[in-house]
Specification:
8 helices; alpha/beta; ten-stranded mixed beta sheet
Length: 233
C-alpha cells in the first residue's frame, strides 16, 4: 500500500527567467530556512541560459521545476499557484533572498492571526550601489512591530511598499479569489495584486526585515500606458 505524502506547510512559487547566475544562491536561502516543511515550485518561463538545469541538478525532492513558454512573470506565478499543494503560498523571485527565519515568522503569524488572508514581513533593500537599508514602514502606530497592519493603503502611501513580492505569503484561496496576478502587465503587477488583496483581506505583518531585495540596477521600467495606475484608481 502506497503512502501519500503529507502536504507541505508552505508552497513557494519561484518564476525563473534567465537568472542562472543568481538562482542557486536564492534557493540556498530557502534550504537554509529553520522551517523545513516546504515545497518549491520553480516555473521556468522559457529560460535560455541553463538556469533550470542548474536547479534540477540539486536533486532535492522538495523542489519541482515545470516549464512553460515565455509568458511573463504573472503567468509564471499563476501557474505556480495552481500547482501549489499547501494552503499558504509564498513568492520568491529568483534573484532575491530570505533570511533563515522568514518562513518560521510567517507560520507564527498564521497561528497568531488566523483572521488574516495574507502575511508579510519587512525586508532589506540592497541597491546596486550604496549601502543596504531596511524598508521603511510609516503610517502605522509608532509602536507597531508585529500584528494586524492597520489601514494598508495609508501605510503604502507613506512607506516603501509594505507588501513586497519576495516577502509576501498568501492564503491560496485568497489569491485565487482575486484572479491571481494580472497577466500581460509589464511592471507593477505585484502592487496591483496587493491592493486587490488589501480591499478584501486583512494583512498580518512582522516588521523585522527577514527578506532581501537585491537590486540589479536593471529592474523593469514603468509601463508607458500605466495600466497598473489606472487599475489602482
Amino acid at each position: 500500500m502506497s503512502v501519500v505524502p503529507a502536504p507541505p506547510a508552505i508552497s513557494i512559487v519561484m518564476p525563473l527567467y534567465n537568472k542562472a547566475g543568481q538562482v542557486l544562491e536564492t534557493i540556498a536561502s530557502v534550504r537554509a530556512q529553520t522551517l523545513s516543511g516546504w515545497e518549491l515550485v520553480v516555473v521556468d518561463d522559457g529560460s535560455t541560459d541553463g538556469g533550470p538545469a542548474l536547479v534540477r541538478c540539486l536533486q532535492d525532492a522538495r523542489i519541482r521545476v515545470v516549464n512553460q513558454g515565455n509568458a511573463g512573470v504573472s503567468a509564471a506565478r499563476n501557474r505556480g499557484i495552481e500547482l501549489a499543494r499547501a494552503d499558504l503560498v509564498a513568492f520568491l523571485d529568483a534573484d532575491d533572498l530570505w533570511l533563515p527565519g522568514f518562513l518560521a515568522a510567517i507560520t507564527a503569524l498564521q497561528a497568531d492571526f488566523p483572521q488574516a488572508g495574507w502575511y508579510g514581513t519587512g525586508y532589506e533593500i540592497r541597491p546596486a550601489q550604496g549601502a543596504a537599508f531596511a524598508s521603511r514602514l510609516r503610517g502605522a502606530p509608532a509602536d507597531f512591530s508585529r500584528g494586524m497592519l492597520p489601514d494598508y493603503f495609508n501605510v503604502a502611501i507613506a512607506s516603501d511598499p509594505p507588501a513586497w513580492t519576495s516577502a509576501t505569503v498568501v492564503r491560496r484561496e485568497a489569491i485565487r479569489a482575486i484572479g491571481g496576478f494580472p497577466e500581460g502587465v509589464g511592471s507593477g503587477e505585484d502592487l496591483l495584486t496587493w491592493a486587490r488583496l488589501a480591499v478584501r483581506y486583512p494583512l498580518a505583518y512582522e516588521a523585522s526585515p527577514l527578506a532581501v531585495f537585491v537590486a540589479s540596477g536593471i529592474e523593469r521600467p514603468p509601463e508607458p500606458a500605466d495600466r497598473v495606475g489606472k487599475a489602482l484608481a
